[in-house]
Design goal:
The protein contains 13 helices and eight strands. By secondary structure, it is of the alpha/beta class. The protein binds NADP nicotinamide-adenine-dinucleotide phosphate. NADP nicotinamide-adenine-dinucleotide phosphate binds at residues 14-17, 29, 31, 54, 120, 147-148, 172, 201-207, 210, 212, 255, 270-272, 274-275, 278, 281. It comes from Rhizobium mayense.
């Protein structure tokens, strides 16, 4: 049985872009992150009380986990929580590919347990979910969740874990003003009704919803996110302007309001933090209470933008 319930923070910290650190970063984000800069991010986050770090083996193929493990070394293991993922798409051929991949993550992160271990995508739920059970029993994974699963896959995974006395404790899906498929598919309601935490990823659409990028100042040239988002930036202007104007009333900025929206919808946003001052934005987001009118206006503008931000790895919900 899961002894202690998953303690969920208001906001979690995302490190996919941290895979862009080092000489040969995969440049998905087109960022140039250095361990020294990321140390500052970690120090600022911890000082503000944000201590749940989300990563995955596939982020920069180990680079995100490795740099995260390095910069967290100055802290006691009990002072932060780690969230990382088994990815069926790169499963090995040994007897237990899930346990094997977890060992790689543990080595990269320099730890002997993961607080929240995920199945990254729903390739063969019946095959992979049972492999989480021994990890929960031996304590290498304290809690488990599923990511990018639709409602029937979530229920199947929960049933499989339930037979062993465990459960799907958390869901992690793409959820932003521009991408509300988990809400439309009833996954948010499922989470609310079953006491399951919903972690929302890409709340800022990889920077496209912050108002910082525009046709004049596009996302970094050559990066994957530039290819995905640059052409839609003009359509997002009315929405990012509205985020900024709501922010002004609270002494806050557009991204803070986008994050506050995700909190208001009952989710735990995982925000990709690449610069120390983005932590201030999370503090702001936590202090903003949006009215139902603000939320309705933002969602109407998001719908009017009429863009599809589904990631290439995501299925329709
Ligand atoms: N389970 C999955 O399949 C999955 C998929 C995607 C993401 N995730 C997780 O969710 C996390 C979040 O997603 P994401 O990192 O892809 O995208 P995101 O959180 O939507 O956007 C992150 C980007 O937004 C910009 N940003 C963040 N805070 C800002 C602020 N206060 N002001 C201005 N710009 C700001 C930064 O861009 P610049 O660096 O250009 O400044 C940052 O790289 C990931 O890191 C990962 O942990 C999981």
């Amino acid at each position: 049985m899961t002894i202690d319930n998953l303690k969920t923070p208001k906001v979690a910290l995302g490190t996919w872009a941290w895979g862009d650190s080092g000489e040969t970063g995969n440049r998905y984000f087109g960022s140039h992150l250095t361990p020294a800069g990321l140390e500052e991010v970690v120090d600022k986050a911890h000082a503000a009380g944000f201590t749940l770090w989300d990563t995955a083996l596939v982020y920069g193929m180990g680079r995100s986990e490795t740099v995260l493990g390095e910069v967290l070394k100055r802290y006691a293991r009990s002072d932060y929580q780690l969230s990382t993922k088994f990815n069926p798409r790169i499963a090995g051929t040994g007897d237990d590919p899930v346990a094997d991949m977890l060992e790689q993550s543990l080595a990269n992160l320099g730890t002997d347990y993961i607080d929240l271990y995920w199945i990254h995508n729903p390739a063969d739920v019946a095959r992979w979910t049972p492999h989480l059970i021994p990890l929960l029993k031996n304590g290498k994974a304290k809690h488990v969740g599923v990511s990018n699963h639709n409602l029937s896959e979530i229920k199947l995974a929960d049933q499989i874990l339930g037979e062993a006395g465990f459960r799907v404790e958390a869901i992690q899906n793409h959820y932003s003003l521009l991408y509300r498929s988990s809400e439309q598919a009833g996954i948010l309601d499922y989470c609310r009704n079953h006491g399951v935490s919903f972690f929302a990823y890409m709340v800022l659409e990889q920077g496209a919803l912050t108002g910082k990028y525009s046709s004049e100042n596009p996302l970094p040239e050559g990066s994957s996110r530039a290819k995905n988002y640059n052409s839609m930036l003009p359509q997002l202007k009315a929405l990012t302007d509205k985020l900024a104007s709501i922010g002004q009333m609270h002494g806050a900025a557009a991204p803070d309001v986008a994050t506050a929206w995700a909190i208001a919808k009952g989710t735990i946003p995982i925000i990709g933090v690449t610069k120390p001052h983005y932590i201030d934005s999370l503090v702001q987001a936590n202090s903003i209470t949006l009215t139902s009118n603000d939320i309705a206006e933002l969602e109407a503008l998001a719908d009017a933008a009429n863009v599809d931000t589904r990631g290439f790895w995501e299925q329709q919900m």
